[in-house]
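Fig. S4 source data, part A: sequence.
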Amino acid sequence: MLLSTIVKSYAKVRVLCVGDVMLDHFLYGKVERISPEAPVPVFNFQSEKRMLGGAGNVVANLHSLGCSADLLCFIGSDSAGREVRALLDEVCEHALPVEVPGFPTIEKTRVIAGNSHLLRIDNERRFDCAADTGGLLGPELDERIRAADIVLLSDYAKGMLSPERCRRIIDACKNAGRPVIIDPKGDDYSKYARATVVKPNLKEFNQATGMNCSPADPDFEEKLREGAKKLFERHGIENLLVTLSEHGMAFVSAKRPDEVFQIPTEAREVFDVSGAGDTSLAAFGASLATGADIQDAMKLANIASGVAVGKLGTSCVTAAEILDALSRRRSASGPGWKQKRKIISRREAADMAAQCREQGKKVGFTNGCFDLLHQGHLHSLMQARQECDVLVVGLNTDASIKRLKGPERPVQDEKTRALLLASLEFVDYVVMFDDDTALPLVDAIRPDLILKEGYTIDRWPEAQFVESYGGKAVTLSRLEGYSTTNTIRRMKG
């Protein structure tokens, strides 16, 4: 099955998630000085964001991928619990957050300056509920499992997935013929006995098996197989998927315990790994639910987590973003240069700009054909980059240029022009557009500044639009004596 076909099938998938939900609270700002009261940074608050974390982030990602998702979880009888309930209503059809008296809703507050985490503040107490709170193990659980295509258990060791509940859920999945995928916690894997797939990271795998596996070691696969066999024999787990951080993923099946299937990570600039495991679990489970095989599901989970770490904070990944990543893979023939990853889609540019605004960064935008890069172009681009923190360059496609300048232009195709621009250190991102003007692209990105040479505001609709929502238009100085038209004329003459 084509990977793109799997992604497009997510909309037909129904997933039940059970696990530990939490409220993720992000505080964004800047640090520019040290406090005179103590040797600590002074955090200048600028903005904040609240979103679902833990198992809540799994269902948020499932919803973002286009799946139908529901969640069984515990919350407290407090304001954070009410906020979690409201957030779940946005991403689930019939979520069941059960209030547990006497326990706070788990909340994690992260203080972030720029791209750096300064501090995390946790408000939590493990839900040690001996009783079957809210009848979670009764007939309603069986009914919800039968209605789902796949069941995901997201265990953060906060009490929701006690050994008793895990065993009851796995038994119900087996009786209903539903696969159950588990993101585990701790070293007691007896609670996950007979699971379809258990998905630890390397540290958790080593902890559970007593191994000391490292992808850098020459005997890594041998140790991985040895540790996997221990878990297969002790607990009857059917498959193990071990995530290896920057080294990708490795899969071992109880049916073929002597074989290891490993894939490398998707190379991306990493801004934040928060929630990447949740994204990976969601994409892996959704892919299996479409009927994809394990290896294809791994590839898509790997791509999804690669997109997630390129965002700041606990972030969801969309099916469209995965399709964009697949498209870039197919078109990026030849060396896997870092510059190619600076060429992004309109949707990615809009998401990136929104994240920059949350961080207090200024996004600048300029655009053009850039048919033959010359010193005049470089002069303008360097000026533009000095005015902002992130510079996005809108690039006319070949078809757009032909409409504007005639059938003999462009001299260089759009892929060449985009890669040349992306190779400049003062250009952060390149976005191609096929419209006759850059206005639709500007509307999508909403830059803080728009910058271009030779235009006054009355002849510059994009600048008028930017100023209409509080942005700033900057007219760049021109370096005389340079133009693409003159260069082409000299070449012909």
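Fig. S4 source data, part B ends here. The mean pLDDT is 88.
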